[in-house]
Design brief:
By secondary structure, this protein is of the alpha/beta class. Helix content is 31%, strand content 24%.
Length: 332
């Protein structure tokens, strides 16, 4: 019987801006405090890209350049680039297009995926199908967002949550039984009422009125989103374990979207995962939306071992949510 062709992560890299926005900084901007933010989110600081001439494509290109260097990959050998983001540099061309140009991947085709905080998982599953079909040999998957560009720093409910950053992985084919094993991805469009950016699309194009009403910033009904996120992210993580007959002892690492420490804790409890098996860096970067999961993999790369069972789980605006089960492909 022939071994099944799978997509495996063969390298991971990340990039975050140097500028730090601490809880103390925010307490000087809005009515909040370090204690209030830490208790409710687990965040201590977040990175902000302040250069007005740089955005998501720049951050992504920095992560991809590191990735190509680490994996000794020629940019001309990249077949496909998929960028998961809700903060594209512009509506078109796609951020993926811009990244390909910045890194010299002139033989690649590229596109963006918009699934908010679940975007990296949606992009990862999409990229894996190109590998499994045999149509691509080297696929770069990016999760990146410049959330500071759509955050109202006078809204204490949202401005304390988000940061800027980018993470990227390289997918390649393997017959070794490692790589992406399964994915469960879901959406519920009725969630649009609770987490959205009201204006800027074709339904409500930019105007003096939309700008004055601050409709180009993130709007979130925090209590509703929290309730949905806790249940959906925990449910889908437990579902993918059950589907693949995995016990908590079988799992080496849970890589949760870094939205809120309480949501992460609830997901881990539902899975029966101990604290020392959970990747958490929300205290350093805040919620970088599509960037959180690849940035976790980047931070923890040296601790990962070949054949480690890893569950990635996320929940985001849309609503979108999902989980990916993979076997890690290499030991650092």
């Amino acid at each position: 019987m022939n071994a099944k062709l799978s997509a495996v992560i063969t390298g991971v890299a990340g990039w975050v801006p140097e500028e730090r926005l601490t809880n103390q900084d925010l307490s000087n901007m809005v009515d909040t405090s370090d204690e209030w933010i830490t208790t409710r989110t687990g965040i201590k600081e977040r990175r902000i890209l302040k250069d007005p001439g740089k955005a998501t494509a720049y951050m992504s290109s920095m992560a991809v350049k590191e990735l190509l260097k680490k994996t000794n990959t020629n940019p001309l050998d990249i077949d496909l680039i998929i960028c998961a983001t809700v903060t594209p540099d512009m509506l078109f061309p796609s951020t993926g297009c811009l990244i390909a140009d910045l890194v010299g991947a002139s033989n690649a085709f590229a596109f963006d995926v918009s699934a908010a905080c679940s975007g990296f998982l949606f992009a990862l599953k999409t990229g894996s199908t190109y590998i499994e079909s045999g149509s691509c040999k080297k696929v770069v998957i990016i999760g990146a967002d410049k959330m500071s560009s759509i955050v109202d720093y006078e809204d204490r409910q949202t401005c304390v949550i988000f940061g800027d950053g980018a993470g990227a992985v390289l997918l390649e084919p393997t017959l070794e039984g490692v790589g992406i094993k399964d994915a469960i991805l879901k959406v519920d469009g009725s969630g649009k009422e609770y987490l959205k950016m009201i204006a800027g699309g074709s339904l409500k194009p930019a105007s003096v009125d939309t700008v004055n009403k601050k409709q180009h910033y993130v709007y979130q009904d925090g209590k509703v989103v929290f309730k949905f996120a806790v249940s959906r992210m925990a449910d889908v993580a437990a579902e993918i374990m059950q589907k693949n007959q995995l016990s908590s002892e079988d799992i080496a690492w849970l890589v949760p979207h870094q939205a809120n420490l309480r949501i992460i804790d609830a997901t881990a409890r539902r899975m029966g995962i101990e604290d020392d098996k959970i990747m958490i860096n929300i205290q350093k970067y805040g919620n970088t939306t599509a960037g959180t999961i690849p940035l976790c993999l980047w931070d923890w790369e040296k601790k990962l071992k070949k054949n480690d069972n890893i569950i990635l789980a996320a929940f985001g605006g849309g609503f979108t949510w999902g989980a990916v089960y993979l076997k890690w492909g290499y030991s650092s």
